[in-house]
Amino acid sequence: MQHVYSVNALIELADIMPGSANGVLALGHTAPGDGGGGLFHWVADASEEPNHGSILKSRFSTSGRWRRVTAAPLDIRWFGAASIPDATNAIQSALDAAQSGGTVYVPSGKYRVTRPLQIPQGVLLQGDGLFSELHYEGPPKAGCLQVRGEPHTIAIGLSRLNLFVHTEEAYGIDLRGMSYSHFDHMTVHLRQPRTSGFFGPGIRKGSSPYYNVFTACHVAGNGEHRSNGCVGFDFHYDEPDQLQSANANQIFGGRVSSCQIAVRCFGTGNVFHGQVLESNDVGYQFDLCPARREHQQRGTNNDVLGCYSEHVRLVLQQKHADCFVTAQLTMVTGYEKVFDAISTSNCVILSPHNDTNPASRSVMDRKVFVPDGRVSKE
Predict the structure, then answer these.
(1) Could you give the 3-state DSSP secondary structure of residue 62?
(2) pLDDT band at residue 363, thresholds of 50, 70 and 90?
(3) What is the pLDDT of residues 105-159, one digit of tens each?
(4) Which of 186, 207, 206, 210 is nearest to 198 (CA)?
(5) Residue 137: which H helix or E strand, with range?
(6) pLDDT on residue 223
(7) Domains in the chain: ranges and CATH
(8) Measured in Å, how far apart are the chain's first and last C-alpha atoms?
(9) Which letter does DSSP use for residue 178 in this model?
(10) Contact 73/105 with Cβ under 8 angstroms?
(11) Residue 135 in contact with residue 91, Cβ under 8 Å?
């Protein structure tokens, strides 16, 4: 019969003599009951780098390791996230431990992040919902969540997390290099001006954000929405080439509120399905990358389907004549103008209001902007 020892914290595993016990029960990562404990067993021929959460060393041996016994997703508490004021290193350690693919779990709690968290290829970062909070206080011009290494067609998953951006000119999620990825039930709170929820400029070497799917993703801006500089979904262009943007992405549902621009799109082939826009200055703004304005392939095509718009001053804005827009708005109220266009050629907009009553819900005249520039009412 083998004995099972118990220790209060993971650091005490180093003092357990290999062979003296078949397993060791840690009661916590730093202290008993902090959620980071678990059962460990000794593997004599292991030599992995310790990560202070699922693989630990013994001071009595250089060739063996204590390995956590589990088939569950990697829990950030195993690496100490719940026991320290700054959870950045702990969460990053959990992500690194899942680098061959797997799920990293963020349980309910508030976790402070002071630099971008880098997510490896094939990893799903998943929380419990609104109570799984990541509070980003890191540098500007960066996102709380980004891909690890050079951005280049990396597929990841993010689900059921609540991000708070506390740094001006920072982003909730930096989409650069994320392709074939999925984002489910994500919420981003922009606590500072000039911030973005989802920031997705194009970059060179074919690494622009392509073929991503967003389901029920929400963004809430900060302060006065007509001047706060916040953007919910920002499919911008790359620097310095100013040639590429986010293309062929699908956005299903979700709500964007209190942003100066709900959706800014320089890319093409993106489809926005059933979003709710509320209290934004501009709803959808479509523009052309500067370097494409004289480019042979300069046109863009994007679709808006079934959008609900409430108290958005300008619902649709076309900032270049070669941005072709198709939109079907399911409800528009509290607006100043539905569609502002440089040219309506190749644009078709179906709006349930006639542009004369900015607030009434009772006016249900249909207005159609047709490709030759005429406006007709049904």
Answers:
(1) strand
(2) very low
(3) 999 999 999 999 999 999 999 999 999 999 999 999 999 999 987 777 789 999 9
(4) 186
(5) none
(6) 86
(7) 4-68 (no CATH), 74-377 (2.160.20.10)
(8) 84
(9) B
(10) yes
(11) no
